[in-house]
């Protein structure tokens, strides 16, 4: 896993680059938050493909627990990718819609949109 640093004004954004799943458990999320905070990042952009598919199955509870960690530690999170493969789940569509109303967590189509979201 690599961090790509984006600095927009006084905001430090970490773009996660990995060919593997980076977040598959609450422990993974907590470690990512800690490492990012230690390196001075204010927000994190994670590609959808770097997150376990279990996250997107709301029945597992993994999404709620992970997003709660990000909220508790006040680390903003953006998940960038194509979520159309999950459109059969109305509850997930609603979950994404509700997350996008707030400022803590966002679901976007691209890294560029994620940077703009964290900047604003």
TrEMBL record:
Q: Where does the DUF4180 domain lie?
A: 10-116
Which InterPro entries does its entry note? Answer: DUF4180 (IPR025438)
Q: Which Pfam families match?
A: DUF4180
Protein's name according to its UniProt entry: DUF4180 domain-containing protein
The species this protein belongs to is Taishania pollutisoli
